[in-house]
Amino acid sequence: MPLTAQDVAEITRLLEQSDFVELRLEHEGFKLTLKRASAGASAGGGQGGASAAAATTAAPWPAAQASAQREPRSEGRGSVSDPSLQEVTAPLLGIFYRAPRPGAAAYVEVGSEVQEDTVIGIIEVMKLMNSVRADVRGTVVEILVADGATVEYGQVLLRVSREAHRG
Questions:
Q1: Do residue 167 and residue 96 come from a single domain?
Q2: Which of 70, 87, 111, 161 would you label with 48, given CA atoms 20 to 30 Å apart?
Q3: End position of a domain, from candidates 32, 56, 80
Q4: Where are the alpha helices (DSSP H) in the chain?
Q5: Could you tell me which of 13, 19, 11, 57 has the C-alpha nearest to residue 38?
Q6: Phi, psi at residue 155, to the nearest 5°?
Q7: d(Cα 19, Cα 54) in Å, to the nearest integer?
Q8: Domain tally, the chain
Q9: Phi/psi zone of residue 128: left (φ > 0), alpha (ψ -120 to 50 degrees), beta?
Q10: Distance between CA atoms of residues 22 and 40, nearest Å
């Protein structure tokens, strides 16, 4: 049985809670290597700005290398002051893409109407592309992550106003 994106996210979460600095896993031809960011510098691999743990992958799009830094956020994770806003968070660690391929239109923009099953982007983990769904109805009011940015599990990707969408 192959590993799912949720399996990789759970493995990453367990590594973050452990004292291990590196994990290598091979399962049915699937190879996964996770390293803590602080271990990367001492091992010479260096994942740069990643915090707790980072999956070592080769990015399929050249833009991913250049734009892997996050845009600044005005508020911290989970600190929405307006109760009508719902945050859509990253379901796993990886590289976030706002469009299905380079040069294509983004899945959503500020002002886009979304439903629970609307795809708002994709997260690449170990060369696997995982769709990210809104899981809420409303109107996108803020996009907090740049295309090609590395995201952490639970990081806020965008905010949706539930009041702007009535239906």
A1: yes
A2: 87
A3: 56
A4: 5-17, 37-43, 62-66
A5: 19
A6: -70, 140
A7: 15
A8: 2
A9: beta
A10: 9
Hey, which bits of 37-97 come out as E strands? 53-55, 85-89, 94-97
> Which tokens sit at 73?
């956020």
Does this model's pTM top 0.90? My answer is no
Residues 65 and 49 in one domain: no
Q: Which amino acid is at 34?
A: L
The 10s digit of each residue's pLDDT in 114-147 is 999 999 999 999 888 999 999 999 999 999 999 9
Are residues 125 and 50 located together in one domain of the fold? no
Element (H, E) at 143: strand 138-143
Provide long-range contacts, Cβ within 8 A and 24+ apart, for 42-46: none
Same domain for 61 and 46, yes or no, is no
Cβ contacts of 56 within 8 Å, gap of 6 or more: 33, 34, 35, 45, 47
Q: Are residues 33 and 102 in the same domain?
A: no
